[in-house]
Amino acid sequence: MAFNIGLSGLRAATSDLNVTGNNIANAGTAGFKQSRAEFSDVYAASVNGSGKNALGSGVLLSNVSQLFNQGNVNYTQNSLDLAINGNGFFQTSNNGEVSYTRAGYFGTDREGFMVNNFGYKLQGYAVDGNGNLQNGVISDLRIETASQAPRSTTELSQTFNLNSTNAVPTSWQGAYDASIAGAVDPLNPTAAEVTAAEATGNATFDPADPTTYNSSTSTNVYDTQGNAHVLSQYFVKTGANEWQMNVLVDGRNPATPTSTTPYSMGVRFDANGQLNTSSLTSSAAFTVDTSGRFTLNDWVPAASDGGEPPVWSSNGADASPTGILVDMRNSTQFSSSFAVNAVSQDGYTTGQLAGLEIDDTGVIFARYTNGQSNVQGQVILASFANVQGLTPVGKTAWVQSFSSGEPVVGTPRSGTLGALQSGALEDSNVELSDQLVNLIVAQRNYQANAKTIETESSITQTIINLR
C-alpha cells in the first residue's frame, strides 16, 4: 500500500512541477493565463462504503484550472495591438473555426483583414457601403486601404459678424449718387431708378481694390474630382442695415469662368443685428428656400491655363448636381469688427490612408491625408458564464465547451465587458516569485514521497531477510 501511496505522490508532485514549469515558461507570453494544479485525496471504497478508520490510498490530480485574473497592460508602438482591461475575450475565426483569446497581437494581411500572429481573423461588426455599423451582424473585420474617393461640396455653413459701424464705400456711394442725380426726379426716384442706381454702385466693385468693399472671407469648396476651389464672399455696405454680398469662385463668375462679374445678393439685418432671412430673394444665381438658406446655382469648376494673362475654362469636373446650399442664418451685424466665427463645408479631395485609431469601445477609425476619418468596423468581445469551462487549445486560445456555456457577445464597455486599450498588450498574469516558491514546494513534496517509497522498500527487505 505504501508503494502505491508514494507513487501517487510522485505523480502528483511531477504534475505540480509540470504546471509550474509551464507557467514559468509562459511568463512573457501576452494574454497567457497561469494554471494551478488541484489535488484531492483518495480512499479505497468497500461494498458498504469506507469505515471511520479507513486508511488513505494516496493523492489524485483532480483538475488543472486556469486563473483568469487581469494581467498588466504594457504599451507598445503598434496601434493595432489591443489589450482588454476587464472581462471578455477577442473572438477570432480560422476558416470558420471560432476561438477566443486575450492575446491582442493584431495586424492586417494582404487582403486588409485584421489578423493575429497566427493568421486568425479578428471578428466584429462591419460597416455597410455608407459607413454605418451593422450592429448584430458578426463578420471578419477588414480595413479598407484604398484611397478615399473625393466628395463635391454640397453644403456650406457660416457664422460671421459684419461691423455695423462701417461706412458705405466711397466708390459705391459716388456711383449711386451720380445715377440718382440722373433720375427724372432726383428727390423722389422711382423703385426702378433706385435699383438701377444700386446696380451702378455695384459695378464699381473690384476684388483687387479693398476700397470697393468693406469685408471679405474665403472658403475652399470641392468639385467631383476633388479639386479645391476658393469661394470668396465680399460684403459691401449699401445703407443702414443693408449690404450687398458678391460671390466669386477662383476669382471668376461661378457660372462663366471667362467673366469676373460676381454673383450678387442683397443682405439685410433687423434693428437687433440679426439677419433678416425674409429679405433674401431668389435669382438666376441663388435659389432661396423657405428657411432662409440659399443655393449657389450653376457653378462650373474652372482651371487656368497658366498663361499671362491666364485663360480660364472648365476643368472637366462637375459641381454637386444639387448646387451648394449655403446657411448663414446665424450671422449678425453688431458694432464690432468683422469676424468669421464658424465655417464648415462637407466636400473633400481624395485621401490616402494615414493611420488607424481604435477607441475603448472597439470602434475602428481610419484617418486619411485629406483630414477625413471613416469608421471601419467595431471589435466585439465575448464572455462566458463559466470561463473555467473553456477548453485551452494552445496558441493562447480557448474554445467553447459544454461546461463553459454559450458566449455572450457585445461591444467593449457594454454590460460587464471590459474596455479596449489600443496600442497595448496584456501581459501574462504569471507572478514569477510565486512560481519559484511553488517549484521549491513541489521539489520537497517529490523528495518526501520518494522517501516514503524508500522506507517501504527497507521495511519489505527486512521482512524478506527474516529466517
TrEMBL record:
Domain Flagellar basal body rod protein N-terminal stretches: 4-33
GO terms, biological process: bacterial-type flagellum-dependent swarming motility
UniProt cross-references to Pfam families, sorted A to Z: Flg_bb_rod, Flg_bbr_C, FlgE_D2, LlgE_F_G_D1
Main location: other
UniProt KW keywords: Bacterial flagellum, Cell projection, Cilium, Flagellum
Domain Flagellar hook protein FlgE/F/G-like D1 per the UniProt entry, residue ranges: 83-130
InterPro entries assigned: Falgellar_hook_FlgE_sf (IPR037058), Flag_bb_rod_N (IPR001444), Flagellar_FlgE/F/G (IPR020013), Flg_bb/hook_C_dom (IPR010930), FlgE/F/G-like (IPR037925), FlgE_D2 (IPR011491), LlgE_F_G-like_D1 (IPR053967)
Cellular compartments per GO CC: bacterial-type flagellum basal body; bacterial-type flagellum hook; cytosol
Annotated transmembrane regions: none
Flagellar basal-body/hook protein C-terminal domain ranges (all copies): 421-466
Residue stretches making up the Flagellar hook protein FlgE D2 domain: 199-348
Phosphoprotein listed as a keyword: no
Domain of life assignment: Bacteria
Subcellular location field: Bacterial flagellum basal body
Protein function: A flexible structure which links the flagellar filament to the drive apparatus in the basal body.
NCBIfam families: FlgEFG_subfam
Similarity remark: Belongs to the flagella basal body rod proteins family.
Protein name: Flagellar hook protein FlgE
